């Protein structure tokens, strides 16, 4: 199978949490800047996140207005609007994300100006697919009811020529790729642990987990450690 090289890139606490108080305040801002700097340094063709992360970081809870597409006829199959230099890939199998454009607009040049690709399934409401087409947002159908990570990787490679993919959360989405699809892990580890009930880096079991041959730890300017694992 042709697939992109997948890099899991996340900020965690010492106890492997990806959410919590550690993400607010001045120190967190500086650690996040180290994280965004590394994101830009990797210079990947695409970044992929789950619906919850997209809502929090890019659509800010906007709901899709699908009323006018209730009885629309939708051509079967994937919808490829075009090929671009950067993509933002959202797993949104229930069709919950509301968009106003087919590109991401973000202050950070690492995320800005990425063409949106939605990962949907055969059971995603047809009116939502019509809504995406009306906005020229690409979508790929990957599975019957649940997203199939192997199909996602194959279609991103085949239909959009994506060679390097940043997998950027949250915990549910990261776990989906545990089935042998993650080639490298890049963690910005914050010097904190709160033992709270934050979301863990992997929040589900899927496949055999991860084992790497090489670990490269490097101190970062603001107290964090960059832990890079590869084969
Ligand atoms: N520390 C970091 O570096 C970092 C990075 C990214 C995100 N985060 C944080 O992570 C939190 C969100 O994490 P999360 O795990 O709750 O959510 P998430 O992974 O962002 O999104 C999960 C949602 O995506 C869809 N989805 C993803 N994988 C799926 C699967 N295998 N099967 C079915 N649906 C799937 C589902 O949407 P539906 O429910 O609509 O079906 C699911 O509820 C946010 O607070 C965010 O700020 C932290």
Classify the oligomer: single chain
Return residue spans where pLDDT drops below 50 for at least 5 consecutive residues: none
Portion in helices = 10-25%
What small ligands are held by the chains?
A: NADP nicotinamide-adenine-dinucleotide phosphate
Distance between the termini: 19 Å
Tell me the strand percentage band. 15-25%
Q: How many structural domains are formed by the residues?
A: 2
Structural class: alpha/beta
H/E element string? EHEHEEHEHEHEEE
Strand order of the largest sheet: 5-4-3-2-6-1-7-9-8
* Number of helical segments with 4 or more residues: 5
C-alpha-based Rg, rounded: 18 Å
Question: What general form does the structure show?
Answer: globular
| Strand elements, count | 9
Estimate the mean pLDDT confidence: 96
How many strands, which pairing sense, and closed or not: the largest β-sheet?
Answer: 9 strands, mixed
Description of the structure:
There is one protein chain. This protein has 231 residues and is an alpha/beta fold. It is 23% helix and 22% strand. The protein has helices spanning 26-42, 51-59, 126-134, 149-160, 171-176, and strands at residues 5-12, 46-50, 87-91, 115-120, 138-141, 164-167, 184-189, 214-219, 225-230. The longest helix has 17 residues, at 26-42. The protein binds NADP nicotinamide-adenine-dinucleotide phosphate.
